[in-house]
Design goal:
Rossmann fold
């Protein structure tokens, strides 16, 4: 699997409070970024423990039997479950073959980010403005020096990501 260039992937976070629309934004822009020829990975943060395998599957049975980790693979996919504490910095290198890694969440991280601020969920930005490359919102909120993109303007989000990618190269 060869990526578009030999440089490290750009890492950007799509951040905001719970239920702000981060996943919805990601599911809309990923196909657009792929159509531009980019290989994209997503690392999602979950503040709680999560079910990582479907009950009843062989891999779940092996984990329940006490395996400390498991890998399931096919010619086109790999899934690993490791019962360890990880940081996002430890996970990023696993995606060295992509052009762009989008972090879902990580609002307090030092990574450049687009904050999703939706009126129905939150009135104020929560991210450090120094890290923001855009505010994606329907609130009318503006932050000096940070471009504002209207909720639903997926093309503008993609263009902002592409510009940031070009600046990083």
């Amino acid at each position: 699997m060869k990526k578009s260039s030999d440089s490290a992937p750009l890492v950007l976070a799509i951040s905001g409070v719970k239920n702000s629309g981060k996943t919805t934004l990601l599911t809309n822009i990923i196909p657009m970024l792929r159509a531009k020829g980019l290989r994209v990975a997503v690392i999602k943060h979950d503040g709680h423990d999560f079910e990582c395998d479907v009950p009843g599957t062989d891999s779940r049975k092996l984990l329940e039997a006490g395996a400390d980790g498991i890998a399931v693979y096919s010619p086109k996919k790999l899934m690993t479950v490791q019962k360890l504490a990880f940081t996002v910095e430890e996970i990023i290198p696993q995606f060295g073959y992509v052009d762009l890694i989008l972090l879902e969440g990580n609002k307090h991280s030092p990574y450049k980010k687009i904050e999703v601020l939706r009126r129905a969920v939150s009135a104020e930005p929560v991210c450090d403005p120094v890290t923001l490359i855009a505010l994606y919102t329907d609130t009318g909120t503006e932050i000096p020096g940070v471009p504002t993109i209207g909720l639903g303007d997926h093309a503008a989000v993609v263009e902002r990501i592409l510009a940031t990618l070009a600046e990083a190269r």
